[in-house]
Amino acid sequence: xxxxxxxxxxxxxxxxxxxxxxxxxxxxxxxxxxxxxxxxxxxxxxxxxxxxxxxxxxxxxxxxxxxxxxxxxxxxxxxxxxxxxxxxxxxxxxxxxxxxxxxxxxxxxxxxxxxxxxxxxxxxxxxxxxxxxxxxxxxxxxxxxxxxxxxxxxxxxxxxxxxxxxxxxxxxxxxxxxxxxxxxxxxxxxxxxxxxxxxxxxxxxxxxxxxxxxxxxxxxxxxxxxxxxxxxxxxxxxxxxxxxxxxxxxxxxxxxxxxxxxxxxxxxxxxxxxxxxxxxxxxxxxxxxxxxxxxxxxxxxxxxxxxxxxxxxxxxxxxxxxxxxxxxxxxxxxxxxx
Length: 338
Ligand SMILES: NC(=O)c1ccc[n+]([C@@H]2O[C@H](COP(=O)([O-])OP(=O)(O)OC[C@H]3O[C@@H](n4cnc5c(N)ncnc54)[C@H](OP(=O)(O)O)[C@@H]3O)[C@@H](O)[C@H]2O)c1
Hints:
Strands 3, 4, 5, 6, 7, 14 and 15 form a seven-stranded mixed β-sheet that branches. Strands 10-9-8-11-12-13 form a six-stranded parallel β-sheet, sandwiched between helices. Strands 1-2 form a two-stranded antiparallel ribbon. The longest helix has 17 residues, at 116-132. It has nine helices and 15 strands. Helix 2 (116-132) crosses helix 8 (278-293) and helix 5 runs parallel beside helix 6 (230-236). The two termini are 19 Å apart. Helix 4 links the parallel strand 9 and strand 10 (197-200). 28% of the residues lie in helices and 25% in strands. It is of the alpha/beta class. NADP nicotinamide-adenine-dinucleotide phosphate (NAP) binds at residues 40-42, 124-125, 128, 156-157, 159-163, 180-182, 186, 201, 224-225, 228-229, 246-247, 249-250, 271-273, 325.
């Protein structure tokens, strides 16, 4: 089979197209014929980071068709369409290859009608967004229609991949969703994702515009840039509100006015998708699948997430596109849709 591999870390030119034997699933594992591989910032960061195996295949997210199951696998059968999460987390084999073996729970049935493109776009962004939306004191700890009724959510950067998933999931769950963007192009995408109010944080009085949209304040901030936005977040949070921080865009330090925050019982909650509790992870996987089945999560420009495609042999360019901040979702075509 064809596989993109790297034996040393560095620029994207460490990635090369190799021929490798088709892997066999062990106990509790499934083998998936990969159709689409999804690229996230974590994939190029890992490729630049520390290599934990003699050779690695990049990319955590993907979608495809179950091809073989190992001993003890009962929940999945060959022929089932699935979406994949964390394929390369503490494992050498990601989704940039024609066949991937992974634990059964990391291959999730793809609801009827959901495309392989959508399946490969879920993993990291949707599971991260789910966690950010479910860490508030008093819940909800699950997302479903009505779960966020009466709540206000501020998504920083609603045209980003995680931001887009957060907007779509929060709307599905009934929240009033306000989002910030940096340009008119991104504002159009955030509106297409379903945001109720879109604020250009470069041009407007962002705090005033968010306050106008959510007069009682924001209950949950899904935050990509906690340093640059610390003052803005403090200005718009409701009492008992939470800032769910999943990245350090714009700087690794935050300055806050402690008294201002403790008098309002504000919480900062940091989120790393890989290491959330098992219960939180499985809840996220289930709820995201339910949202997909309901047609509430979509991809493409019409859903605020334009798709950019690369063939498998150009995975290095796909990594570069993500690192350069391409707006939308970068996908690698490993095989054609059937
Ligand atoms: N902790 C975790 O588990 C986890 C999970 C997933 C991703 N991440 C990290 O999260 C980051 C984003 O990932 P992604 O896939 O969503 O990337 P992406 O698609 O490139 O989106 C990043 C977004 O951040 C926005 N942004 C930058 N500065 C901002 C600011 N000051 N205020 C508001 N928005 C701002 C950008 O929008 P504008 O240009 O409009 O500002 C952009 O849309 C990456 O660093 C990634 O590694 C972490």
